[in-house]
Design a protein that fits this description.
By secondary structure, the protein is mainly alpha-helical. It contains five helices and two strands, in the order αααββαα. It has a two-stranded antiparallel sheet with strand order 1-2.
């Protein structure tokens, strides 16, 4: 189980792959980052790299957004789900 958790945390997907995996446009994924809902790893040349967990989070954010939740609401929901907010 610990190994599976670690593998999900490895940043390995470029933006192009993240777009293919999520079906979202790159500008939408970058917007999630601008709202600090997502923080992908970066290479030395500043290229974004996404982990499996990041991809899951992008999908979760997009689902909430499609349900009409604004970015501030999404931030609060994600905080509650992660246990960082009571």
């Amino acid at each position: 189980m610990a190994k599976e958790f670690e593998e999900r945390e490895i940043a390995k997907y470029t933006m192009a792959v993240a777009v293919m995996l999520t079906g979202l446009e790159a500008h939408r994924i970058r917007r999630f980052e601008c709202y600090q809902l997502l923080c992908p790893a970066r290479t030395e040349s500043r290229q974004r790299l996404y982990s499996d967990r990041d991809i899951e989070r992008v999908r979760e954010i997009a689902k909430l957004e499609s349900e009409g939740v604004n970015m501030q609401g999404i931030r609060i929901i994600l905080e509650i789900r992660s246990g960082r907010r009571e």
